[in-house]
Amino acid sequence: MSDKNSQSVSYVRETFLEQSPPPLKEAGVVKWMRENLFSGWANSLLTIVAIYFVVNIIIDVWPWFANGVWNTKSLAECREILQGANAACFSVLQERGNQMLFGIAYPADQYWRPTLGFVLLFIAAGPVLFNKLPKQMLYFSAAYPFLAFWLIWGGTILTPIMIALGLIAGYYAFTNVERLKGFALGVVAGVAAATVCVWLGGFISGALPGLIALEVIPSRDMGGFMLNMILGTICVSLSLPLGILLALGRQSDLPIIKGICVVFIEFIRGVPLITLLFVASVVLAYFFPPGTNLDLILRVIIMITMFSAAYIAEVIRGGLAALPRGQYEAGDSLGLDYAQNMRLIILPQALKISIPGIVNVAVGLFKDTTLVSVISMFDLVGAIRGPILGSTDWTGVYWEAFGFAALLFFVICYGISQYSQWLERQLRTDHR
Amino acid sequence: MKKSVILGAMTVAGLAAGAASAATLDDVQARGTLNCGVTTGVPGFGEPDADGVWQGFDVAVCRAVAAAVLGDGDAVEFVPTTGKTRFTALASGEIDMLARNTTWTFSRDVDLKFEFVGVNYYDGQGFMVPSDLGVTSAADLDGATVCIQTGTTTELNLADYFRANGITYEPVPVETGSEATQLFLAGSCDVYTTDRSALAAQRANFPTPSDYMVLPEVVSKEPLGPLVRHGDSDWGDIVRWTLNALITAEELGVTSENIEELSGGSSNPEVERLVGSAGTLGEMLGLDAEWAKRAIMVGGNYGEIFASNIGEDTNIGLARGLNAQWTDGGLLYSPPFR
Fold first, then answer.
1. Which pLDDT score, from 0 to 100, does residue A431 have?
2. In A353-373, which positions are buried (b, 16+ CB within 10 angstroms) versus exposed (e)?
């Protein structure tokens, strides 16, 4: 056939033509710009105006940024060097940067401790956030809270070990008793075992205060971005399980549990966080006898955790409500009990729906930790507003210090938001 | 019913807490540190330096009391307080004394149940204007726009002053001092008014301080001093007489440099009583004989503390003015050490 063709029809091509490139207007940058920036006269106009503003801002800000002074001892020296030129005085970050990161009073020779704790946080959070990592790393994640406590607050390592042992003992007591006597007695036994263990452990760690001890640093000396990170990490990780319990409690058929959860959630949501912080800082002090002062950071952690737990509970309740009734009934018809039904069927779906809301609350909570500055704790913003802007050397520095704070918060919050979007893509099993 | 029982129990616990902390001196000595409430940062008066060590005029009072009671001017736990938390921190016993440029007023002394032990800085409200406004007296400020912090006594004083002089003004309310200076520098208001010490401190950090001037008028009385709780007069006496010791030391010419020499022997009997080489004044306070000597040695006498923190050679550059000794025409007048 082909033979015949090649002999009879002389104009048939035997090779394919090389693919020619698309026309310039339909490819690459030009196409993208035509489609996105200049697709009509209105869009073109807006693009040009926007470019004009962006360029102007960069022209104005860049010299301020690039000519910044980095190594003076005070704002006055900065001004002397700049001679009226419009430029930043970044020396405040050089001089007081450590105070912004670690607080006013944290001893400088101990900065490695929170830094190490911060690095280890990523290793500990890894297996929780990414399920591709080896499961053995979860043991480290479980040990991390105790390690971090020891690193940041110091003291003998026995204290966190004893608390950890108490929790393990409580867990074993709970599982063993629960199997034989039921859930309620299991909880009682677990709490009792944990309390006894921690109490006994207190004697041991009290007797050996110097064993593998780090310098003790009181909570009052904590501050800076470290304090924001401590509050943010602890409160988010505590309020998530608490929020789940509250959401389930609010859906419960048991009137007392439902009542308690509804009252708690509605009360907390009806009160501003700043009010709760004032209660934690000043009002509680009246009710404790002197000497039994509950640690200020602990008080603040409790208040912020309660606050965000109430919001997370409502987000998760939204997720629960979005599930069709059939899912609940399917679980029941398989003969699963309540706990199995929730754990295996309902919550995995409800939590997946709730991820954007939960992340929203978490990001908001992290930024809300700066509110502790109003109860005179020197977190990042508090340290800048109080001692740094209030010092003889640096009063008058605004953009540099607050810009640095904004940058730190942006990095963390943007990271959280990117992670949550990645997680949503990972968990998307439908509507593809 | 149940709720009222719980509330009642909490109230009783609160009252018991108040009553239990009567002997502050014993608490402080047992603890080994003095809990002293300070500001979160006011230039010259209380600010942590780059190493986190608290410095300043109010802070020096804390250190003097710690030295008198505990023998170590560094045995102080500084508790930063805001304008909102300062009084509850003191009332609840979280701090033993408050040295935080707090104005001594009737209602704070009587109604809030505090005891002001003296005055360490006589302040007053003043006005700052740009020099090129061409104003030399506050009476010329008719029709001016005034930056003022809301909710303060300065706001009320301002209204009183302008009404008394029959002139008008337009207020520009702001929240904090740094916000006010930003607005003032940007020209959003002609006049910025607050305590004169704060005006001087903020002016010192302007890009061009000489373009601005503080008007001579003082329109209110702001006696700033340390305070303690009602109900423990022994402790109040210690703080009061530590402050008086600093003031008396300046009056008698006792400085941190010559105090060693003077405690070896002095011709002036009051100096001898002050430094503890004669008399039993320390014993009467429940302290040892050299309490005042230690207090003076920490940062020097009142004049030395003033000069090194806010005096004319510092960035703040305040003149002694009302805060000179009574012998120099000021208001500082300590009762005698006898």
1. 58
2. bbbebbbbbbbebbebbbbbb
Chain B residues closer than 8 Å to A220 by CB? 77, 79
Domains of chain A: total: 1
Burial of B21 from C-beta contacts in 10 A (0-12 / 13-18 / 19+): buried
Query: B163-217, pLDDT tens digit by residue?
Result: 998 999 999 888 677 778 888 988 889 999 988 888 888 888 788 888 999 888 8
Is residue A190 in a domain?
Answer: no
Among the partner-chain residues A79, A286, A376, the one whose CB lies closest to the CB of B92 is A286
Query: Number of CB pairs < 8 Å for A and B?
Result: 114
State the burial class of residue B48 (Cβ atoms within 10 Å of its Cβ: 0-12, 13-18, 19+).
Answer: buried
Handedness of CA A57, A63, A65, A66 (dihedral sign): positive
Select from A92, A104, A292 the residue whose CB has the most chain B CBs within 10 Å, as the one to mutate to test that interface: A104
pLDDT band at B18 (very low <50, low <70, confident <90, very high): very low
- Is pLDDT of B237 > 90? yes
A347 inside domain: no
Answer left, alpha or beta for residue B52, where phi above 0 means left and psi between -120 and 50 means alpha: left
pLDDT of residue A289: 67
Separation of first and last alpha carbons in chain A = 47
Q: DSSP secondary-structure letter at B290?
A: T
Sequential DSSP letters for B133-156: G---SGGG-TTEEEEEETTSHHHH
pLDDT at position A4? 55
Single-letter amino acid code for the residue at B161: Y
Distance CA B38, CA B55 (A): 10
Interatomic CA distance for residues A151 and A226, integer angstroms: 13
What pLDDT is stored for residue B5 in this prediction? 42
User: ipTM value of the model?
Assistant: 0.76
What is the identity of the amino acid at A339?
Answer: A
Chain A residue numbers touching B17 (CB-CB < 8 A): 286-290
Question: Which DSSP state fits A19?
Answer: P
Q: Which chain B positions have a beta carbon within 8 Å of A293's beta carbon?
A: 94
Residue B180 is predicted with a pLDDT of: 83
Specify the pLDDT at position A229.
Answer: 92
Supply the DSSP symbol for B328: G
Residue-level pLDDT at A34: 84
Let me know if residue A45 belongs to a domain: yes
| Domain coverage including residue A48 | 24-66
B9: left (phi over 0), alpha (psi -120 to 50) or beta: alpha
What number is the average pLDDT over the span B122-151? 88
Write the single-letter amino acid at B257: E
Neighboring chain A residues of B84 at a CB cutoff of 8 Å: 278, 374
B21, B81, B205: residue with CB nearest A376: B81
Report residues of chain A scoring pLDDT below 70.
Answer: 1-9, 285, 289-293, 430-432
Retrieve residue A282's tokens: 């000043």
How crowded is residue B89: how many other Cβ atoms within 10 Å of its Cβ?
Answer: 24
CB B304 within 8 A of CB B255: yes
The C-alpha of A341 sits at a distance from chain B's nearest C-alpha, in angstroms, of: 37
Which chain A residue has its CA at the smallest distance from B78's CA? A220
- The helix or strand, by DSSP H or E, that contains position A368, with its residue range, turns out to be helix A347-368
Cα dihedral sign, A185-A188-A191-A197: negative
**Is pLDDT at B1 greater than 60 in this prediction?**
no
The answer to the question of residue A33 being in a domain is yes
pLDDT digits (tens, 9 = 90+) for B43-88: 888 888 888 889 999 999 999 999 999 999 999 999 888 777 788 8
Average pLDDT value for chain B: 86
Report yes or no: B243 and B61 within 8 Å, Cβ to Cβ: yes
Domains of chain B are 22-122+224-284+322-328 (3.40.190.10), 125-220 (3.40.190.10)
